[in-house]
Design a protein that fits this description.
Elements lengths: L2 E14 L2 E14 L3 E5 L6 H8 L7 E6 L2 E2 L5 H11 E5 L10 H11 L4 H14 L15 H13 L5 E5 L7 H16 L3 E6 L2 H4 L4 E6 L2 E7 L10
Parallel strand pairs: 3-8, 3-9, 6-7, 7-8
Antiparallel strand pairs: 1-2, 1-4, 4-5, 9-10
Helix pairs in contact: 3-4, 3-5, 4-5, 5-6
Bound molecules: adenosine-5'-diphosphate (ADP) and magnesium ion.
Protein name: ABC transporter ATP-binding protein
Pfam families: ABC_tran
GO molecular function, one term: ATP binding
């Protein structure tokens, strides 16, 4: 398997005025293409900070991050934005959909940056929405959809550019248990189809869906283990 993510010696220090806070204190992680990895840890442990770095939304203070063979530490803002657009899909706890736009228009948005024609955008967006089970809801605005449906629109938006990596930060944190099952089922399907997924959560039962879980505590990885049944022939 080839690595899609390699983090080495990653530290992140936040500075506000004279106060410094080290949110990540030396993180080494390798994630291979096609893995489904949960990152679990208590509130304030550094999960979102790690996600921001994995998503090229922020850069480490120290250490290196190689994404799909490309060392991101040498990239400037514009290059990071380009890599983000090309390689990464994001799903957030708060959905972050534009309330005045239909589901279809929300999902089309990332394709505008990809330079597709209007007709191609609509077709790709409609396909992505059909994949998440919302073919009948293209013209609905977020306010006319349930929380679970809104999060499925967000997943469609994350996938419409066919990114190599899907990053989800507490994607079920605002959902009831039925919608949670729904969205987790969707992530399972995406993983089965070969997507690499990194899911951040503070709930053990959500993490249990992934094949591997990393525990982060106080800015350090304290555990890294397989959570699914071992493949046939493997012994432990
Ligand atoms: P989690 O997502 O696990 O709850 P975060 O990564 O959001 O944790 O935050 C980790 C720590 O870093 C927390 O103590 C938080 O207060 C601090 N922190 C996060 N973002 C900033 C920031 N922009 N400036 C200063 N401190 C921050
Ligand atoms: Mg967080």
């Amino acid at each position: 398997m080839s690595a899609i993510i390699e983090l080495g010696g990653v530290r992140k220090t936040y500075r506000s005025g004279a106060v410094e806070f080290e949110a990540l204190r030396g993180i080494d992680i390798r994630i291979d293409t096609g893995e489904y990895v949960a990152v679990i840890g208590p509130s304030g442990s550094g999960k979102s900070t790690l996600m921001n770095i994995l998503g090229c939304l922020d850069v480490p203070t120290e250490g290196h991050y190689v994404l799909a063979g490309e060392d991101t530490s040498s990239l400037d803002e514009a290059e990071l934005a380009a890599i983000r657009n090309r390689r990464i899909g994001f799903v957030f706890q708060q959905f972050h959909l534009l309330p005045s736009m239909s589901a279809l228009r929300n999902v089309e948005l990332p394709l505008i940056y990809a330079g597709l024609s209007r007709a191609d955008r609509r077709e790709r967006a409609a396909e992505a929405l059909a994949k998440v089970g919302l073919a009948e809801r293209l013209d609905h605005r977020p306010g006319e959809l349930s929380g679970g449906q809104q999060q499925r629109v967000a997943v469609a938006r994350a996938l419409v550019t066919e990114p190599a990596l899907l990053l989800a930060d507490e994607p079920t944190g605002n959902l009831d248990s039925r919608s949670t099952r729904d969205v987790l089922g969707l992530l399972d399907e995406l993983h089965d189809a070969g997507r690499t997924i990194v899911l951040i959560t503070h709930e053990q039962d959500v993490a249990a869906r992934a094949g591997r879980s990393l525990v982060i505590d106080d800015g350090l990885i304290t555990s890294d283990r397989a959570t699914a049944a071992a493949p046939a022939g493997a012994t432990s």
